[in-house]
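Lab intake sheet, docking and co-folding queue.

SAMPLE TYPE: protein with bound small molecule
LIGAND NAME: zinc ion
LIGAND FORMAT: SMILES
REQUESTED OUTPUT: full 3D complex as structure tokens
PRIORITY: normal
SUBMITTED BY: R.K., bench team

The fields below were copied directly from the construct record.
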Amino acid sequence: MKKLITAVFAAVLGLSAINAETKITAPVTGKGTPKYVFVFVGDGMSYPQIQSAAYYAGKDAAGIVDKVKKSENASDSPEMKALSFYQFPVAGSASTYDATSFAPDSASTATSIFTGYKTHSSSINVDITKKIKYRTIAEQLRDQKKYKVGVISTVNLNHATPAATYAHQASRKSNYPIGLELVASNFDYFAGGALMDPQDKNKDKTSIYELAKSAGYKVCFDQKSAGQLKKGDKALVVAETLADSASMSYDNDRKSGEWALRDYVRKGIEVLENKNGFFMMVEGGKVDWACHANDARSSIADTLALSEAVEEAIEFYNKHPKETLIIVTADHETGGLTIGYAGTDYNLFFRTLDGQKISYAKYDSDYVSDYKKNKTDFASVMKDVENLFGLKMPGSEGNDKNGGLVLTDYELGRIKTAYEKTIKKDKSRNQMEYDLYGTYEPLTITITHILNAKSGLGWTSNSHTGLPVPVFALGAGQEEFKGFYDNTEIYKKMANLTKIVKD
Ligand SMILES: [Zn+2]
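RESULT FIELD (auto-filled):
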């Protein structure tokens, strides 16, 4: 409880909880059989996502002022702030390709992580003929070891990654059937974004929420009732504040007092703790969404929120070191993010990103939709751009080179072109426009592209890429996760350690 109060207090003060980093204090032997298994999945979170967050949370010497020359004073040198899981004693890497693609999706990659099999992109826990169903580690631990199971996600609870713990569907888009499987799983704790199509696409079926209630779940739609959940409750918790596509807020849009991912993890531990053990999957699902939209600031915010959620598991580990295993990994990379950009040479300017106060999605919903409705003039739009993203008109005070927030005439021209396309509600894309905007709002993605480029971050795609992902491990059996292996091995290692019999 004290921790919760501290977190809420910190949010009110606008303090970053990363300052309250939880250290591993219990002995780290790696011995023992894991009885409490945490798997954190940063969706779309490969090395560029975690390391850009670590750099952003640290400090860069040059900042946004004209101190480009490397300082001779060591205290002015760049420093990274280690994410919570950087202190884990074991780090490995996993390849992510699936049965049909080197740039796979969350459905197939989560299938690999939770069942040990490769399958088609967009299939969940079925084979490539779509006939054989694969059982997941969560189901096996529930049945064979009487573990309780928790599934937490910042995105919809029947979205691909959480679904891959309990559902078996040829298509990840079968939202209602996936919801039915959620209820049938009898897992103990679901928390995060709202369900997609709870009454099916035609809104003509019994709501999944009603079915969950009938199956004995406490269904909570507000923090007050979620806060009252107790050890042993079976619960389905939907975040009180919902953002784009009924997901949880991006962490950089989260209001004071609004539960962060770590709050749902803390409550989950309380609800799930029992003598047989538990398996908890926690997804930072909006790292992926931010990276699809090429919004580095929001990717960083949600990566830091995942790092903070991991702290809750570390705290649990400190109490149960011989029986706890924590894995932090990802399903694939999204966006082709990299750290370094042609226009900034050998420099990075992470403080430039401080100018961004809002996620791309909230900007779209709260501002751009009005621009389109009211045909807002460009000068007024640029005032918002300065307030919300920090980018200033050419000729403004400040340095316009090497990461400054002052736009060049060329950059302003790009924003103007994108603005016109947005205002016209023109959804057509020639090849150049597709390369520049993907299917996103031209104005918004141009703003984040320019801001990201000024900070030294580059993107190659609005889709997923084939980069390997990190696998960090702490606790009982941690040594298993050393080395470079395929993502299907993550399941096999967890199954070996927990002594699961394949069924
Ligand atoms: Zn994605």
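REVIEWER NOTE: The two ends are 40 Å apart (CA to CA).
SIGN-OFF: pending second check by T.M.
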